[in-house]
Structure prediction request, 225 residues.
Amino acid sequence: MGEAGYGIDPQVVQRIATEIQEVHALGVEIALVVGGGNIFRGIRASAIGMDRASADYMGMLATVMNALALQDALEKRGVYTRVVSAIEMREVAEPFIRRRAIRHLEKGRIVIFAAGIGQPFFTTDTAAAMRALEIQADVIMKATRVGGIYTADPRKDATAVKIDQLGYMRVLQEELGVMDASAISLCKDNRLPILVFDMTVHGNIQRAVLGEPVGSIVKPEDQLR
Prediction:
């Protein structure tokens, strides 16, 4: 949504698409999981009285809108892209079929997973963890507006200290807000690394893919230095 209070900022979509295109050109297989908070937040609507399940389904539909906007921007750059939705809507997206999604990646297409996992009470974080495991991804790269994981929110606390690497248990025990507990636990059980980085800095996606020190990484405790 850029600097606006809600909605889709075309300039932001174009910038993200450009960065993804640059990384795709390196031959990297890329799957994206998009949220819908810029359009509708189910948990916020639930807090003011809306039925949680209905609110979550509305949030899932918002993610499809974001996915279609990103698909349009990528395909205008000549990058073949497939939107895969956990809620069936064949006119605009493919239904999620694990083997088909993997095949798209093998053929060099970018896959955008939308509509979470198709069930209420699960966050986009959990959807990202589940889809990453299903397609056997090497890493989850969580794009945020801050430079990594901090001891507190650096936008609110000037004393917050950045943590370059940490284990899953520390994230859970200190409630560092990297992803929700269900997503962290899924990654922990399957030893799937999580890289948290600032997506507002141009080139950060490519730097992360190339192994440059960007953001913060959560990984198994026995791999910490």
Summary: Helices lie at 10-24, 42-47, 52-75, 98-106, 124-134, 168-174, 181-190, 204-209. The two ends are 37 Å apart (CA to CA). The longest helix spans residues 52-75. The chain has a mean pLDDT of 94.
